[in-house]
């Protein structure tokens, strides 16, 4: 039960996963968001597909995200869904496994959006779970003891859901019980000014 002294009381988190068409520069093709309030998964995955200008994804993008040309042709344009995506993200601490790539890509579509804090899930996992052999999402899911069949079947909904479950496991495992303060302090953020050298590609879960 949540108590007034619980460090997660009052926290509002948005776990994000995005897909792109694999082109250069990449164009957004899907967004998925999961809400965690007070450390509890309360909503999602909320998912929107987006029709990019180039609706022919690369082979790697199809492999990673499962969206083909026909899927993207049938998707709404960004202007039709921007308000809804902005609404589910505004005012929430942003969590993502591919934080640098996802945040940078989405800010190109929501230039006025600025989350109160951002958290790189892979960096957080390395701090809480010492000695990880790698920080790819499949490894984090295995370390968290997740059961893959409980997740959505594919793409960004699966990634966002899995990230949310990994985050819950990390919150339970945190001995300091001080993660919300450390989130706000930017301890797990990609360093400003948000110009990462290389985005981590989450890739498909195995």
List the helices and strands and how they pair.
Layout: E1 12-20, E2 28-37, E3 40-49, H1 59-65, H2 69-73, H3 78-89, E4 93-96, H4 99-107, E5 118-120, H5 121-128, H6 137-143, H7 155-173, H8 179-184
Parallel strand pairs: 1-4, 4-5
Antiparallel strand pairs: 1-2, 2-3
Helix pairs in contact: 5-7, 6-7
Structural features, described:
This protein has 206 residues and is of the alpha/beta class. It contains eight helices and five strands. It has helices spanning 59-65, 69-73, 78-89, 99-107, 121-128, 137-143, 155-173, 179-184, and strands at 12-20, 28-37, 40-49, 93-96, 118-120. It has a five-stranded mixed beta sheet with strand order 3-2-1-4-5, with helices on both faces. Strand 2 and strand 3 (40-49) form a beta hairpin. Helix 5 (121-128) packs parallel to helix 7 (155-173).
Short précis:
By secondary structure, the chain is an alpha/beta fold. The chain has helices at residues 59-65, 69-73, 78-89, 99-107, 121-128, 137-143, 155-173, 179-184, and strands at 12-20, 28-37, 40-49, 93-96, 118-120.
